[in-house]
Amino acid sequence: MNFETRYLPHKKAEPVKSLIKALRILNALGDCPGGLGITELSRILKSPKSTVHRLVATLETVGYVFFDVPTSKYVLGSRVAKLGEQLSKQFPLLTFGVKALEQLTRECKEASHLAIMEGTEVVYVSHEKVTEPIRVSFGMGHRAPVYCTAGGKVFLAGLSNTGILTRYKNKKKLEQRTPRTLTRLKDLLFEIATVRKVGIAYDNEEYAPGLCCIAVPVKKRSLRLAYP
Questions:
Q1: DSSP SS3 for 66
Q2: What's the pLDDT tens digit per position in 98-155?
Q3: Residues forming beta bridges with residue 204, ordered by sequence position
Q4: Which of 104, 169, 206, 219 can pair with 148 through a Cys bridge, CB separation 3.0 to 4.6 Å?
């Protein structure tokens, strides 16, 4: 596994604040299936209603937001679904991986996920829920630190130690999510060395109390996803 050329650090440009707010609106609507009104969005964004209304109106014009008349709420528009379809075309494993996730969950009776790495986070892009009474599942788009998740460790194993240290060059200590979280980089590097040897990574209640996960890399040409 080698992610060095694909995830090289790059110089960040000055962010466009209005664009960030628009994306936050989409995120907020995605988190609320029943939709949200201007007042609610204004509170979430901590921005004036007039500003939020202009952004929502623009998003509605291009199809990313839809006004549901019966509820007087704004919901995600059809263009968002189109992006999801386009994403599946760019990442073929999202299409072919669904049946594999279904089979894995059916046989193991545990939730299964597909994930990608972005910076120092692992992002879950597909999942299969379990039907057992006690279950844990991360929805699409959920983000978590790479250093304390099984899927994240699989990706780190694809980097050199130098590559890992570069990502955490300004970190003297990693955030402790649970009592089991590895917070020292030297301890993390030691575990990643083991992951490289065996090809399997574990999360033993390091991300959340009571949650244990296992992950392996799934490779398809230049595409690499974690399959936890």
A1: strand
A2: 777 878 888 888 888 888 888 899 888 777 777 665 556 676 678 899 999 999 999 9
A3: 212
A4: 206
Give the Cα separation of 43 and 56 in Å (integer): 14
Helix axes 17-31, 49-61, angle to 10 degrees: 80
Backbone angles phi, psi at 71, to 5 degrees: -105, -10
Rounded Cα distance between 2 and 160, Å, is 8
DSSP 180: T
CB 52 within 8 A of CB 36: no
User: What gap in Å lies between CA 197 and CA 223, rounded to an integer?
Assistant: 21
Q: Per the domain annotation, does 1 fall within a domain?
A: no
Q: Is residue 43 part of a domain?
A: yes
Of the residues 82, 105, 133, the one at which a domain ends: 82
Question: pTM for the complete prediction?
Answer: 0.64
Q: What is the DSSP letter of 210?
A: T
Q: Are residues 117 and 22 in the same domain?
A: no
Same domain, 170 and 212: yes
CA distances from 136 to 50, 97, 119, 163, 175 (A): 39, 20, 25, 31, 22
Instruction: Tell me how crowded residue 192 is: count the other CB atoms within 10 A of its CB.
Output: 22
